[in-house]
Design goal:
Length: about 425
């Protein structure tokens, strides 16, 4: 019997062999695989839900936080949403083979770039079993093989989903080995995986800060990091308060357990007295707890129905993943920019203002993957951006930034047509 390490290495070699065939697989075959996956998710949703209930009950017994359990949970609506997303990706243009930047050099050489798959992608992720589907379909459509390693808290859910993906892909004619799943929760295997630079072309960690830090520091191949979202909303002195209230509520409350949820509101002193109580009152309807600085507390103290406490230094730059928000009154746009530069994670930042110059300055000067003027940070999502889904949200600048879809899972090679040219 093979050891766990030997099995992992065999999976890696199978993925590498499959990646060579996938690189030249037609769009029709890849789309058929995705259509099969979508159909099977619906047909076998009771099987998925049954497996997910095992994980969810174990998570409850282990004392997992409500935020993490929300990420773990699958129900009929979420499975149907996953199936819909699969079809959206199937309908997108296939990036593989696209020719870009074609030009003719003075010597007559015709030069261009051709999009090609990256090869084998390893994905390490926690809690959210829907990631199994998102990453699988995007990798397959972009011609990549994938090695999946989910967290132990979702092991039964992931087993059920991977089985569906593998069987649906095989029926469409995709090569065996295209989707690999590490069905062993031993953490030592992650160390082995991160050494397989001869097999794996890119690693994408999705999870908490500890996982991302570990992968970034130990991988022997390129890593795309991100996912930690400390998201700010700056309410400018020229803001439309009704917009600010709606955006602050949506960004904080609509789904507080995800990385693009709002963590901190910075509000200009000239509008704080009138605007902050309205924002706080709207938040109060959902039970949001406010951690305010001295000036924010002074404004909000008159309303005894609010959940308000004094902010501590650790509240600035904290990803709450809960119905908690930090609030600070600032003197200027400059102060807001300095605060975001210091405490932001490079994920998503927003301004509410009716002043075009202030909006433009914010968009130009804030260094983040996604920067918004008069819109909620909750839009930072592959599906919302028209990518169908995402393998992750990159907060770095090479080679991808923000939600990563099909094109971010490709590289390119130079294609050169000549007519007998030689270099002088």
């Amino acid at each position: 019997m093979k050891s766990a390490v030997e099995e992992l290495k065999a999976q890696g070699q199978a993925a590498k062999a499959a990646s060579r065939r996938l690189a030249n697989t037609s769009t029709d075959v890849k789309n058929k695989a995705l259509q099969n996956i979508s159909e099977d998710l619906i047909k076998r949703k009771s099987e998925i839900i049954a497996a997910n209930k095992i994980d969810y009950k174990a998570a409850e017994a282990a004392g997992m936080s409500a935020a993490m359990r929300d990420r773990l949970m699958l129900d009929t609506a979420r499975i149907e949403g996953m199936a819909k997303d699969v079809l959206t990706v199937a309908a997108l243009p296939d990036p593989v083979g696209e020719m870009i930047e074609m030009r003719t050099l003075p010597n007559g050489l015709l030069l261009g770039k051709k999009r090609v798959p990256l090869g084998v992608i390893a994905a390490l992720y926690e809690s959210r079993p829907n990631v199994t589907i998102d990453i699988s379909i995007l990798c397959l459509k972009a011609g990549n093989a994938v090695i999946l390693r989910g967290g132990k808290e979702a092991i039964n859910s992931n087993r059920a989903l991977v089985k569906i993906v593998q069987e649906a892909a095989a029926r469409a004619g995709l090569p065996a080995g295209a989707v690999q799943f590490i069905d062993n929760t031993d953490r030592a295997l992650v160390n082995e995986l991160l050494k397989m630079s001869g097999v794996i072309n890119l690693v994408i960690p999705r999870g908490g800060a500890d996982l991302i830090k570990f992968v970034a520091e130990n991988a022997c191949m390129p890593v795309v990091t991100g996912g930690i979202g400390v998201c700010h909303l700056y309410v400018d002195k020229n803001a439309d308060i009704s917009k600010a209230v709606a955006i602050a509520y949506n960004a904080k409350v609509q789904r507080p357990t995800v990385c693009n949820a709002l963590d901190c509101v910075l509000i200009h002193k000239e509008i704080a007295q009138s605007g902050l109580p309205v924002i706080a009152a709207e938040w109060a309807k959902a039970g949001v707890e406010i951690h305010g600085d001295k000036r924010a507390l002074a404004i909000l103290k008159a309303n005894a129905s609010l959940k308000v406490k004094s902010a501590v230094p650790a509240d600035w730059g904290k990803e709450f993943l809960a119905l908690v928000a930090a609030v600070k009154v600032v003197d200027s746009l400059d102060e807001a920019l300095v605060h975001i530069e210091r405490y932001g994670s490079g994920h998503s930042e927003a301004i509410v203002t009716e002043d075009y110059q202030s909006a433009l300055r914010f968009l130009n000067e804030v260094d983040a993957a996604c920067v918004y003027a008069n819109a909620s940070t909750r839009f930072t999502d592959g599906g919302q951006f028209g990518l169908g889904a995402e393998v992750g949200i990159s907060t770095q600048k090479m080679h991808a930034r923000g939600p990563m879809g099909l094109k971010e899972l490709t590289s390119y090679k130079w294609i050169v047509f000549g007519s007998g040219q030689i270099r002088p």
